[in-house]
Automatic annotation (TrEMBL):
This is Ribosomal protein. PROSITE patterns: RIBOSOMAL_L1 (PS01199). GO terms for molecular function: rRNA binding; structural constituent of ribosome. The keyword Transferase does not apply. It comes from Geodia barretti (Barrett's horny sponge). Pfam families: Ribosomal_L1.
Amino acid sequence: MPKHSRRYNTAAERISEDSTYQPDEAIGLIKELSSAKFDETIEVHLRTTADVRHAEQQVRGVTVLPHGLGKQVRVLVFANGEAADIARQAGADFVGDDDLIAQVESGWTEFDVGLAIPEIMSKIGRLGRVLGRKGLMPNPRTGTLVQARDLTRVIQESKAGRLEFRTDRTAIIHGQFGKSSFESEALVDNLTVFMDAVMRERPEAVKGAFIKSAYITSSMGPGIPVDVATLQAMRPA
């Protein structure tokens, strides 16, 4: 069994193991229990019933959180010519063609969002072994393969709170939706938009309940079990 700190164990004692909490209750409690010396990230973890061995049951999507993620997002864009100029003007942190491809191929991945224009995809295909496992490879399914005319919008969304999500190999979806310093209402808003996006991506092949269990936690804190029915029903006003 892993050993936890006294602070963690004290927080865990406040959580009822026999109950599930409403989302707003869980958020209020996690904010109250967040006592680290830094601004902890608030996360939600959803165990789904999807069978990810089948491609049609893998869940992957993207959404933009209305109150952002509370952190600086570094955006990289693989582009050249006029598209590269657009990306720089829109505030991308790293923009380039062959030079940037070579840098990433050597193992450098100091960025949070990777974008590319379609014209350059043939060049970056070999970067999948570096970027794929980190979820940074541009992909049309997540809207990170971008036409030049849309670069400004996508870069601004990425900086503001664009969040990608997908099932991992154990069929769990992990999502960040703010910081412990956020107001509870802002965290509820972000969680609502995230859950709405997840439910929209529910595979048609999944019958019955889609989410088996759910927990809200902070970077350094214990997980709080959340009522699944309420979570699945959350929709933006």
